[in-house]
Amino acid sequence: MRLLLVDDQRDLADGLAEGLRHEGYAVDVAYDGGTALARIADTDAELMVLDRDLPVLTGDAVCRILREQGHPVRILMLTAAGTLDDRVAGLDLGADDYLAKPFAYVELLARLRALARRGRTGGPVLESSGVRVDTVRRVAERDGRPMRLTPKEYGVLETLLAARGGYVTVDELLDEVWERGEERGRTVVKAAMHTLRRKLGPPDVIDSAVGHGYRIEVGA
Predict the structure, then answer these.
(1) Cα 186 to chain centroid, rounded
(2) Per-residue pLDDT tens for 137-183?
(3) Exposure check for the chain: N or C terminus, fewer CB within 10 A?
(4) What CATH number has the domain spanning 125-216?
């Protein structure tokens, strides 16, 4: 998958680009907003990591212009301003996700994987079968009933909804939700799935299939 990385901190941008290439991404780099717009017009980038504070054109301006043009690139916006109001403002501009600096590299990778699955139609609110997740505020509800979820339960639910009816394997759930160094394995996924199902309540909307994983059917 081709990715455009836009950040004026050259050492950071070059380091991230190198790491992402090792992860299998085809990475182009731009150091200012003007170059970013020119570069994306010449590439078929599906993902963009976009710093908000850029020279020439700000990240906000780049994001706004791309959305006005109807460009389908999925945008993960980076910024040092990480308050809830900042995140909401970035998403309102048309960004698909928002990550505050400083960030953990593993979280950046997880969010990029989620965007790659979700596509532009997913948006910051994921919803299916009466289950709704607001990925900005990180809250979930079932048929209008707020749910109190642990971070792992929330991560599993968001990952399943982001797959938009597709199966998510146990290994994919571990990569998305569990950090390296944590206890990892089928047992922890099974335990989180059990408590998540209980909190969702009947009827059960999570389908499982041996050899495929778990999913929430679209419109089930």
Answers:
(1) 23
(2) 778 999 999 999 998 899 899 889 988 888 899 988 888 788 655 66
(3) C
(4) 1.10.10.10
